[in-house]
Amino acid sequence: MLARSLCCCLLGALLPWLSATTHAAKPAVAAEQLTYERDVRPILKTHCFHCHGEAGVREGGLDLRLRRLIAAGGDSGEALVPGHADESLLWQRVRDGDMPPEDVPLRLTADELATLEQWIADGAIATQAEPDDLNPDNYITAQERSYWAFQPVQRSPVPEVPDASSAETPIDRFILARQQPAGLTLSPQADAATLIRRVTFDLLGVPPTPAEVQAFVNDARPDAYPRLLERLLASPLYGQRWGRHWLDVAGYADSEGYATEDPLRPHAYRYRDYVIDSFNQDKPFDQFVVEQLAGDELLTPPLKNLNAEQTEKLVATGFLRMAPDGTGIGGVDKALASNEVMVKTIEIVSTSLLGLTVGCAQCHNHRYDPITQEDYYAFRAIFEPALNPKKWSPPAKRKISLYTDADRAKAAELEVEAKKILAQRTVKQNEFIEATVQRELAKLDEALRGPLAEARKTPAKDRTAEQKQLLKEHPSVNVTAGSLYLYDRKAADALKKMADQAAAVRAKKPTEGFVRAVWEPQDQPPAETFVFFRGDHEQPTTVVPPRELTVLAASDSPDVPVDDAQRPTSGRRLAYARWLTSGQHPLFARVIVNRIWMQHFGRGLVPTPADFGALGVAPTHPQLLDWLADEFAANGWSVKHLHRLIVLSNTYRQSSQRHAEGDRIDADNQLYWRMPVRRLDAESLRDTVLAVAGDLNLKAGGPAVPVMANKVGQFVIGKENLNAGRPGAVLPMHNEDLRRSVFVQVRRSRPLSVMAPFDLPRMEPNCTSRSSSTVSPQSLMLMNSPFVLDASQRFARRLQREAGDSLADQITLAWQLAFSTTPSDEQVTQAVAFVEAQTVHFAADPLVAPKGQAAMEPAVEAMTSFCQALFSSNHFLYVD
Question: In what residue span(s) does the Cytochrome C Planctomycete-type domain sit (predicted)?
């Protein structure tokens, strides 16, 4: 019920605007005849169905979901008098503001009111027959089915254009076909230095080195640019960059979220590494998705003794374990929390793979798209055998050991060897202790030796008071394993050496790794899925079988089995994944190519990548979208093939320079007459600062680099030393703090402070499209962050180390490293003057060095301030 209330509140705030801009309703002056299916039903569906028909709710006995039901009326009689709007009760109640009720924020717009009135006045026409046995709960009109996103992908022929001189690829022709009728064309190509910076950031997420820039600028071969592209696509940094994009839509996090405790997911990093490796290998995207949705169903139980290939498929299912999950936290309502995990998982799957807001149908039929509440739960039924809220596995039980029988045998063998050493050590230890005791007894009066020896042999619980007193008076004979070193250092060292030998043997044991995965239990039938009344998990109603959304299911699309007798699992997720990636699904390929386009141009051909539905924005270039979708499937679902198509086009290679005519005709650049200027995202900004400073650690993979709160409450990379005995002590990071941002822990409650101002997503539950804001905290971070200040100093020392003593040479190198260009003579002159003036200033008024640190030389301090200015500049932060 909470989800429903929140949904309604948000819709209430947005609908007055959304309704006016997205509905199919037409004003009364429209020349075309208004119909119920096309013009009126969407209005009633948005504002009225919730109380007049859905889930058995019929206020006033009135059901508005079909034209015939409106005509039948309700408790107050006929609701409709065709041809006479003023005599129609439906129109009267809406016109007078009685309906929807005042406490419902979803008000009809003026255009919607005019449409409703004109429709009734024109005779309340319906164009489709409505038989008496038609179930209005699952009714989808022909107009709804004909919506562009629900149609099969159609590969359009590459357009012929009047002037194809600027076209290099088919993409260019599609773009020119929209530009030329508007009086536009592609801008001239960007210069070589701009282009290598652009494409390197796009594909690797870090800037090119000065040597790489110079080599490309000087390369006169006609295939210089394609050769550059292939080098970038072969770099291991490519997968780290493009894997990060997928991790956004997957909702990747190294913690559970849900509550302030935000427990860690210590094994989630394996999924992150799987994604990165998949992009580097150019794994076919259909296989990539099948493994994530049903990798476990590609294996044969039991999931033991897994080889590398089997492990990879199991790791892939971490995609379905990314939703925030509070079921392992004490004090939470486990039934509510497990249902919420299912809700968020459906949201991640549907927004990332279908580009639809399927979750809006959790409590009632979708108000805008033809997705029924039953559709929502039938879609959920695909996943419930593995994510059964009624037999829920908390996070601690969702791991599968990677130990093989051979690993266990080896570990047991080594443990026997270690214990043998320790047993020998115990014998030696007893011998050393006894010898030491005898030496100590020999130092005492002969009369005491016997009683003391007897007291020592007597178990402590059986000693008499006299024995206890005797041992207390002569502590030198109380030799133990812990005190032996006080008497015989040589013996203690020998024992330590034997203990170290045993530890060394145990260290050879294979490390037991774990996978956070999804799998179906083998000892129980597949879970039943119920429709929840108004989305309330405590009010289940009817059972629904698994299936595709009704509007997406073609007549020849395969059924999702309830329980596949040919498989050890239900087979539901595998069947659905194979249909989704079959090349026949109307949405999947479109959604993925749109995301790839978006990452190259900053905006998708469909500007709302997670919503291809009625509330989304229509594609600017629908024929190009379908051509790319078909090309993607026809070429083995290769993402790198799409990169080549896009990046080699003149549309991508053109300059970002604006001109007055382009701004006048197409100020928003929807026709792509110039390359959009884009700001570095949070990860690229941090990685680039480290790369330019000369510190970026390119170590790949493995457990996430930890994040902690520092003394002032900012979240920084580090690990608190809880054994140090003093607050604020941290463990040495050994350059782990300099690794790429994709390997830094994604803690939902601890966003890295240096990246947070630059629109770092929170993963609640995922991020379908990143914002790119310009706000004051960004400038404040660049001015005051210890991370930037320290990097600026390291950058300055790098310049002095690599460019020599010439200030002009240092400035030139700084420009090349930060901007991938060579400064003009005027820029060098101005920069030299600035650094020299700063040097004089710091010599006269030196900064006080932090306690325990030596003061910087004025020249270093001056160059540091110059480097910080470069880091803070638009030239550094934006890619042309």
Answer: 48-103
